[in-house]
Amino acid sequence: RVTARRTTTEVPYSAAEMFALVADVERYPEFIPWCVALRVVEREEGALLADMVVAYKVFRERFRSLVTLDPRAGRITATYVDGPFRTLRNEWAFKDRPEGGSTIDFLIDFEFRNFILQATAQQVFDKAFARMADAFVARAVKVYGKRETTPA
Known about the structure:
Shape: globular
Helix content: 25-40%
Number of strands: 7
Largest sheet: 7 strands, antiparallel
Order of helices and strands: EHHEEEEEEH
Distance between the termini: 37 Å
Mean pLDDT: 86
């Protein structure tokens, strides 16, 4: 069974600011729950290859993703290359709002090869997904300063 979730969040930060924050993958261990290490293996214009180590209770897994960065389109996509998953895909889309701030659309879709890992992930996924989305907003406050949410 594939686990997938999508969320759309309005933030008082510009699309460019949020894009930069999400694109700064080397900083993920500082604020993403369960991300204990991240190393960029290769970097070229518009793309990078990264190894991430995630740990939760007794589980510790490393996986590699290809991250494509398209600042003009306001899109970041991470596709699975190697590790414990059968599939893994993250998609981010950032769009400025006319009244200020931006809208962030985030999708994560994954399935572990290992049944035990998949069952464990499904048990905590909704909470983990919410914590991860909140972590990026909290990071924006830390990096860019607190801003009032713009009325819709």
